[in-house]
Amino acid sequence: MGGYVNPDCGGWTELRVHGVSGTPPEEILQHPHVRRVAGDAEAGFYRRRWESPLTSADTADDRQEAYSWGGLTAGKGQRALWLLLTPFLLANIAYWALPYAADTEPTSRTRRATEALQRLFALSLTHTLVLATVGVSMDLIGWQCAAQSTGCPDRTRGLGPLTWSWLDQPGRQLAVTALVPLAVVGLLWWLANKTWRELETTSAPATSEPQQHPTPLEDHRMWNGESPVRRLRAVHISAGFALVALFLLAPFTDPGTRPAGPWQVTALILLALTLLLLALTVVLTCLPAMSRRDHPDQEVRDHADLYTVLPWLGAALAVAAAAVIWQPAAGTTTPTAEITPLPGLATTVGALTGVQLALLAAVVTLLLLLRTRHRRTAGPDATTPAWFGLTTAAMMTAAATVAVGFAAGGALTVAHTLGTPAPAGVDPDALVLPLVYFWAAALTVPVTAGALLLAAVGVWLVRHRARAMLREHVIPAYPGTPVAEALADPGTPRHAAIARRARRIATDWSWATAGDLGGRLTGAFALWLAAVITAGLVGYLLDPDGVYVHTRWAVNIGDALVVGLVAGLLYVGRQAYRSPRFRRTVGVLWDLGTFWPRATHPLAPPCYAERAVPDLVRRIDHLGRTCQGQVLLSCHSQGSVIGAAVVLQLNAEQRSHVGLLTYGSPLRRLYARFFPAYLGTATLRRVGALLAGESAATDEHSRWPWRNLYRLSDPIGGWVLHAAPPADGASTETTPGIDRRLVDPVFAKPPGDNSYPPTRGHSGYPEDPAYRIAAETVRARRRRP
């Protein structure tokens, strides 16, 4: 198959960038045989491979090339583990949803304070994960089930080894079960370091342009996250190891379970060092330098510093704590008939939940202050943030809710397997869990009920919207078809068929607006979630045991819901690991969430744009400046977000070789509303102005070498700057501006066909005749006189 190879340089290269779910390069290029010309298997550039030059559609002056980046998010089976990192992902997205840029006065100081609180919140989520594994492994299994005289190991399959003679001591059982949380922290360390080497260490292209830019995405530091991610990773990993060490030493903190012996002084010294390390991680997290990104032109700093030592220091403390608790003198306690929890664990879980709620309240206060100050100085072209500018707080609330839900679900699942869970002091034979987990289970009931109610309201609104869609959009979109007459008088068979077809199209277009409606309903759900959490906090402060004593029914229902959540998560993870196709489906969440760099949580799934944006910048530089060619950057869906970021990263010489064609783009419908500081209206206008040249008038959009295609049937894509009237393939250039609205579907049946044409929605843009017209228009705008 090593036949004819098209020249790499000169002429036009249509460089296609796909959207979510990892579209294969064969599908992008619509050809069964492709060859990689640059990059690697995870993110590579591909061209068609032809058996004969006579059959080649590519020429030396005009060729197609695909950039396939799907392997960065859903390529390997181990990425099924990313499902467990969903709270970290949400916390990281929350940072980029801050509605105002960091260098915008007078909001810069307030924003920096908000960023510090977000980093602390992200650190608390790492604590939540570690405490969840500590609670399940060390507390429920190693301390309550195995270390007490309950016979639990004998009746539970797989726990028999804990009763072997050389392990039949509470200290040793605790040390052995500590291997699970230590392994979890170690796995997170390995995964974060591996993805850091593969993505964050991909250096952003150096530039001689000024370091101050009108929009944040023009800053070349944006995709240069090697140093800050390394620093944050060291802090989180050391904190995770220190937490495990803390609870290995927990028996030395409680007079009721404190072991006697010569190891007590050593344990107390280790305990003090562990607390100091935890305090140090908190202090370091608050420092502004923790999220500072260096300019690509600056020298890379030496890695042999504090942040190299920190994780190993935390691991050393955990090993030392395990060695101390392993000693026979340190591990002897007096068995009791009543099951007692690991000292300090329930208090720590409750305190951590309180800290997270306090951080959320502080962030909401600062966001409201930012909103008030920004409204005084905002220009007429400023983008209105979604959810009243509180998207960051909503994302953080969702992250905390999911994290606590995972923790409660895991603890309740294991407790039901081992015995019967209950709060402390209720049942001497029950396994004791922190009260926070029972509150979380009970609050799951109103949260789930609210979600179901809002979903039902959404379905009703979408169906109701179909009537307005029929009148406002379907009738004007098909002027050559008597749709209005058929709807008014469907008496004849022809009119009845036209009316049915029009209503079907209106229904499809109405369902395409479900995402916009869903965004508003999700905001309402965030308010409901905040109200439920507030009510739960008030109830907890008034009567901590009340939820288990007075609303046992809610605890039981919520118990089943959170256990079902864990079972469903395990099933999805198993399927994602085994099936690449299923992994690509689940990977849509990762594709949308991991566009943004890891700014607050270094253990979140990695940012693929830190690899994709530099890849495309270098490829465009090669095809354009080096080869003296022209590049049509053709971007679908999420690829249009990557494309906009790439244009903003190009220098003036590189941009002079580039035209932009976007289709099915969520830039305005999703990113401008939820990430206005980075992809608001001003930034989108800046993309077009930069492509046209700095001297181009910003209001002459039709002259920009950029066109955007969208359909009302598309549930994801939409207009970018201005909504356009419907246009067919022959009249797409009669409308001013860059946006072109395509009519979809074709209304009538094709000649000789008994079936109506399908509704393409979000797919099939390159097959539409308007695509080629728009591409030729962009090329004409890009050609030099």
Tell how many strands the DSSP assignment holds.
11
Strand order in space, largest sheet? 2-3-4-1-7-8-9-11-10
Average pLDDT level: 84
Query: In DSSP terms, counting alpha (H) and pi (I) runs of 4 or more, how many helices?
Result: 27
Percentage of residues in DSSP E strands: 5-15%
Radius of gyration: 29 Å
- Please state the structural category: alpha/beta
N-to-C CA distance: 41 Å
Structure description:
With 785 residues, this protein is an alpha/beta fold. It has a domain at 13-21 and 60-67 and 608-782: Rossmann fold (3-Layer(aba) Sandwich). Helices cover 56% and strands 7% of the residues. The protein has helices spanning 25-29, 71-74, 86-96, 108-145, 152-155, 170-177, 179-200, 226-248, 263-286, 306-326, 328-331, 345-377, 391-418, 435-477, 483-488, 493-511, 514-542, 546-550, 552-578, 580-593, 609-626, 638-649, 652-655, 667-674, 676-679, 681-692, 769-782; strands at 12-17, 34-39, 44-48, 62-68, 421-422, 431-432, 630-636, 658-663, 706-711, 726-727, 739-742. A nine-stranded mixed β-sheet has the order 2-3-4-1-7-8-9-11-10, sandwiched between helices. A two-stranded parallel ribbon has the order 5-6. α9 (263-286) packs antiparallel against α10 (306-326) and α14 runs antiparallel to α16. The longest helix is centred in the middle third of the chain and has 43 residues, at 435-477. The model is unreliable at 1-6 and 331-337 (pLDDT under 50).
